[in-house]
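# step 3/5: fold
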Amino acid sequence: MRRFSFFAAAGDSGASGRGDGPAPAGDPTRRETGFAGSAPGGPAAVDGEAVVGDRPLAGRVVVVTRAKHQGEHLVGRLQALGARAYHVPLICVSPLPLTDDLAAALKAARTADWLIFTSQNGVDAFFARYRETALPPLSPARPRRVAVGPKTAERLAAFGLPADVVAEEYTAEGVVEALAGRVAPGEQAVIVRGTLSRDVVAPALREYGLEVTSAVVYDNVRDEAGVRRLQALLQEAVVDVVTLTSPSIAEAVAEAVAAAGRGPRWYASIGPVTTGRARALGLAPVIEARPFTEEGLVAALVEAVRSGEAPGRPLP
């Protein structure tokens, strides 16, 4: 085994110079966060060195910041690779109530030419509210369904409605690119989104001449208790990685880092939009997932530990 200089360089982000291993068994962050966080059987001894093999993340302390209903799977994947993973949700996601405006948007979806989903949360919240209406089930033939990526497409398929178009780049810009040349002026599109979703797709489709309706079906709210727990973790333990899976989560992390007075050794971003927001907030260094999925995020972490370098596209 060899030492990887990447982690020493990453100390410039505000982490202390202590060893790369996990916090001691008596780590007070257990008391502060309520999460044990270690992989089954305990982490392998690392003493500042990365362990390769079937547990390449052995001993690395990783904080997963996804919403409660989304983060446990990622925590499990990281633990299986040897990481000492903490789940500290920084965002709460909840479906919005069925208002008159939302009911009208859901009704418009039945006759639209395109029904566009920009997240898995949007799929779940859309069908949760659609069931509350007296509308008949959506037809497999129409509207044509667009997914921002394969995970969103999987959620659609789980409801019996496979995606007709899946963006190659898993961003709102990727959705616009996927629809270029497919849509026609005068067509109708319904975009399913959350309260904090970036308004990228609708303006682009209007420029293409489409009539666009937004169905805002879920709310993103910062978990202030989670921000405080992350602050405590950063103050009382050496944290190797904090995950960033949306711009809003990057903003919450930046608040916790500022309050703690120190950050992790580095950040792991789900994709370029989140990376851009993180860098604008002064969060660095950043590893970027490739592809822009949970699997890509895990692969990026493993590659970073093994190579000592940030993988994927070069970051300016």
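# step 4/5: annotate
Residues 247-260 form the longest helix (14 residues).
# step 5/5: archive (pending)
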